[in-house]
Amino acid sequence: MGWNVCCCPHMRQWLPGLAYSTWVPLIARMRKLAIECTALKKHYGSVKAVDGLDLQVFVGECFGMLGPNGAGKTTAIEMIQGLIQPDASEVCVLERSWRRNERELRRRIGTQLQETKFAEKLTVSETLRLFGSFYRKAFLLEKVLDTVQLQEKRDSWVSKLSGGQKQRLSVACALICEPDLLFLDEPTTGLDPQSRRQLWDTIRDFRRSGGTVMLTTHYMEEAEQLCDRVAIVDHGQIIALGSPRDLVASLGAEDVVEFGFEEDATVSDEELQALPGVAGIGREDGRVRLTARRVHQTVPALMTLVEERGLTLNELVTHRASLEDVFLSLTGRHLRDE
Hints:
Rossmann fold, Alpha-Beta Plaits, 26% strand, elongated, 338 residues, six-stranded mixed β-sheet, disordered N terminus
């Protein structure tokens, strides 16, 4: 469940005489792996969908793959699920290989794809019974309906469900086999905020029951809310890996200030770097982006500079630093277009 050995107060008692730098990696290696792959590749001609991806997901954690559309997230997760063959590397899932243990692994994992087509004239309960019949062991229907909050829709045709309800039904079909490992590929894309948070609650409930989750998403807030660790993926490679908090902290500042000038006016990086609290500077499409340690000092100093130079701002916004800002600082591009 996202156990962080660095924060456990009793570890030194268990491993007396070992330096901190020695026993933390040792304990980390003792954790069971739900997923492991090294130098995972999948090329389609000249297109490198996944290009040397190294990945370890621990049992009990929620691991997120974050990146823009086309970054290789779905291709990677489909190889890990055994749906497509990698060009290189062997994937190990739940300490088993797909080549020798496919039947067992199919019984132990649950999968929600980006898009699932259900029989429109089946009811919700009929759909879940159908999926449950594919497994030797399946959750009780009532328990699954309760987990995804579809009790009131149990006798409704699939064709009558809203988009959010269909997504929850898709997750229910992934949960019906009582999986040890749950794959969720863009689970809340296109959902309204209420439906999104209902699905978040479902994922949290699965985690609390002891399950492991691997999800892909391009929503920063989703990754920050749900994931113990996040891999930021771009062009088929992991360009950053860590907890959401640690990745944001790598920016060296807690806030971001974005602004633009009317016409073609500008100020130099040297002038901006001299402002109090500025940790970094970026420019994109005529806009300036400052990462700031002390935004309450940076903004007034910026306004003074603008006034002294006789310039006019056409916009000024501030926000707390997020994974979006991490991606932007690494690539110079936004994670997704709004």
